[in-house]
Amino acid sequence: MERSGGVEHQKKKTAGGVEHQKKKITGGVKHQEKNIMAVVDEEALGKDEDNRFVKSIDNVPFFSQFNDHIRHLLDAVDRLRELNVSKEGIKLPTIVVVGDQSSGKSSVLESLAGISLPRGQGICTRVPLIMRLQGSHYYSSEPQLHLEYQGKTVQTSEEEVSIAINAATEEIAGKQKGVSDNPITLVVKKKSVPDLTMVDLPGITRVPVLGQPEDIYEQISKIIMEYITPKETIILNVLSATVDFPTCESIRMSQAVDKSGERTLAVVTKSDKAPEGLLEKVTADDVNIGLGYVCVRNRIGDESYEEAREEEASLFDLHPLLSMIDKSMVGIPVLAERLVKIQSIIIGKCFPETIKNIDAKLAQSLQQLRSLPRKLNNLTEAMTAFVQIVGSAKDSLSKLLLRGEFDEYPDDASMYCPARMAEKLNAYSEELGRRSSSAEEFSDNRRFLMDEIAVLRNNAKIGLPNFFPRSTFTTLLRRKLNEVSGIPLDFVHTIWNYLEGVVVRVLTARSENYPQLLSSFRRAADSLVSKMREESLAFVREMVDMEKNADYTSNPEYINTWTNLMTQMQTLKGVLSGNNAETKIEIRPFGQVEVGHLRLFGAEVDEAFDIKMRITAYWKIVILRLVDSLALYLQTSLSNLLYKEMEEVIVKEFVGSGNGSLERLLFESPDVARKRARLNDSVKLLKESKLVLSNAMDRIENAVENDS
Ligand code: GDP
Ligand code: MG
Fold first, then answer.
1. Residues 6+ apart with CB under 8 A from 17
2. For the chain, is the Cβ count within 10 Å smaller at the N or the C terminus?
3. Measured from the CB, is residue 125 less than 6 Å from ligand 1?
């Protein structure tokens, strides 16, 4: 009678649950924003009116009310875990057990599973143990256990599971005390267990015990952090009642990734050993445990699992201190129930996200696979591929060098070629200007106009005094040009060094998938750039020569500047003819200039001043020409490089590099082969994962239809 009532009750509950979950899955993304704590508050912490569920865990299928579709989802998640989707960066909702060494982690799992796990002092758990408890699918009376690790499946039994786990641990992490992050999966199918999947991790220890590696703490923390960092993880923090919680390493670690504790649940073990003050400890909550505390007492010594539960129940019922703790916070059955609920919540919450992530990752892998080079089967294909590669390199370079489009290197400012070249050109122009107008030179040292006067005297001829010889002007001009002629040459080197970097980089990137091309592409880049560099240097020499050999400009700026500068002659003469003590005056464009020494010279000063002002006015034009024509030249040179030289040089380097160059393209490089294999694996895995998920969704939909 009571039983059938129970079934009625459960059926209703299951159907309601499905409705609820369906809503949750479809509205999942929105739902996710909701704080998990709030969800757990309203769903998990609510008093369950079905007491049988809590009390008689041994007889009734433990979680018969555990609704079907959550089971399907959990199965799907377990299957994904088995497929190891985490290696594709897909995080799965997981309950992870952490705790300091000997805090009782394995004992808690043992209590939940009703089996014996390796247990004891020191470090027993040396690799992650993924424990999958399956109660609801399993109706046979004989429990079935097996281990999966390193691609193997090993059948075992309740009696031997401990030995089997130790053997597997030794196989993975060696006989010593070392640890490994390579997991063992233990599947327990037994009708009295909850449907729960949890990961037991090695306990944290600061001090290595005999035989443990020095860096054991770092190794173990690394494994633990890897598991507890993803926000999809629920942290089951196992704390011994005998210690001060804030001093626990495991609390420090879980707080590092979950400050507010919204995904941390605490299990307090060894309640029997330290009942004093336990109630205060769990109600004070000094350590921010968002999902609450459950105090338990695990199996001690040789007790059977059933005896242990009875002992636990009477401990919390009868002990004068422990019986004060609210019943919703004590006992393995409460813990099991709470975990199942939390698990269903995180799975429901993460499921839509997981589907999305798998889809995105699949699309990405497919895209990468498509962008790998095709396998070339014959010479025609090889030739086509070669032509395409050269074409695309040319394309990239012309975008970068000529058009200033840098969509292929958006994050690398050094590839914004026109901008970088313009900068270098500005620096070049400034350098020319700086070296030629020696403003400070005349301020104190009585040198103003002295060069001009000396040249005038050397070029003196027999003739009328008011015609100064042209050679005076050209001598001074050449002298000035000689002083700066190194600058344009240096500039050409700077520019081509820079361009060489760009060309090499683009050609290297283009031959990335065909390493066979790499060396010829590099040589091609080399000889292309040195050819262009030589041509540019020749141009610069010729350009400077032209300036030396003739003086001409059609630019009216010359006359304008000269006329303007000549107006200062009056000022100069005024100072020279007077007898002021102050003989320092402002003369454009030189600034403050000492002129007193010129009183010793007569008409020569007029000529020298005139020549200086002509040179100054003309020099502006010369610099402009040196900058402008070099800029134009380089621009042309770049387009020649791309459209006239490049293909020829590349073909010459490639074909000329030895016999069978094209044939060599037919062999796929091991790098590409590896990449292809990895991407194919990834695609296969992700497609399989998608199938697992969509099958789970189908089953849930069917269940919903059958129910209604
Ligand atoms: P782990 O290193 O965290 O996995 O800890 P174990 O589960 O191996 O437990 C360490 C020791 O504490 C073992 O000797 C257990 O028997 C003991 N232990 C665990 N839980 C309890 C408990 O609730 N009460 C008592 N008295 N001892 C416990
Ligand atoms: Mg352990």
1. 67, 69, 70
2. N
3. yes
Q: Is the peptide bond before 208 cis (omega within 30 degrees of 0)?
A: no
Coil vs helix vs strand at 236: strand
What CATH number should be reported for the domain whose range is 2-363+692-707? 3.40.50.300
The amino acid present at 684, given as its one-letter code, is K
Q: Would you kindly state where each structural domain of the chain is located, as residue ranges?
A: 2-363+692-707, 379-667
Residue 32 pLDDT grade (very low, low, confident, very high; cuts 50, 70, 90): very low
Predicted pLDDT of residue 426:
94
Closest CA to 133 of 117, 151, 114, 105: 114
> Quick one: which H or E segment has residue 66?
none
Across 254-279, average pLDDT: 92
Chain-centroid distance of CA 489 in Å reads 42
Is 186 strand, coil or helix? strand
Specify the CATH class of 379-667 in words. mainly alpha
Q: Which has the closest alpha carbon to 127: 220, 210, 247, 25?
A: 220
- What's the pTM value of the predicted model, to 2 decimals? 0.59
- Paired sense of beta strands 144-149 and 184-189, if any: antiparallel
Whether 101 is in the pocket of ligand 1, judged by its Cβ within 6 Å, is yes
- Kindly identify the ligand whose nearest atom is closest to the C-alpha of 98: 1
- Which tokens sit at 329? 């916070």
Tell me the β-bridge partners of 98: 237
Please, which residues have CB within 8 angstroms of residue 608's CB and are 6 or more apart in sequence?
449, 452, 453, 456, 601
Q: What confidence score (pLDDT) does residue 17 get?
A: 41
Q: Other CB atoms closer than 10 Å to residue 544's CB: what's the count?
A: 20
Average pLDDT of the segment spanning 498-525: 88
Mutate to test the pocket of ligand 1, among 96, 98, 103, 107 (most ligand atoms within 8 A of CB): 107
